[in-house]
What we know:
alpha+beta, Rossmann fold, Dna Ligase, domain 1, four-stranded antiparallel sheet, two-stranded parallel ribbon, disordered C terminus
Amino acid sequence: MAAARLGYKCRVLTQEADGPAAQVCAATIGAYDDPEALRAFADSVDVVTFEFENVSAAGLDLLASLRPVHPAPAVLRVSQDRVTEKSLINAAGIGTAYWLPVSEFIDLERGVAQLGLPAVLKTTRLGYDGRGQMVLRTPEDLAVAWERLSPRPLILESFVDFACEISVIVARGADGALAVFDPVENRTATISSISPSRPRR
């Protein structure tokens, strides 16, 4: 809707015919890795972007062969794997919570011995907004988390006693120009019920 106000016509590739974006703009319905759906989608757009990281990298490669894709599929591949992502960030000199890769249960036990409890065990892939992770508070939590979390390998992170969470969006144009948007604090809200609004008299 924001893009529409700027004069852009948007189309989404979605697996859900009644998905949120499909309710407000044109949509191609299909899987993220379906070549037929991807080609149909590419035929209907000028440029492609993606909204979150849990899409098919191979599918994005196909789209990139047909239309400009920003960010590039290589960026998606980094953001899809927490170990790859954190390694790149740390190599750039940016600090993160302490972390260790976990391929076997013994890695988890050794990692907890090194980082201490509480700690957070996460999937390296396919996690999103709290999914694919568990907080470990006691030694008994290790086996439970190991059985529940998949796919593996996993990643163990030290617990961070944070004051708040913020998001910063940085956009880069094809010419290399950067635009940095104001940081915003993320807050959770609980809505118990939503009722249709009644017209005022």
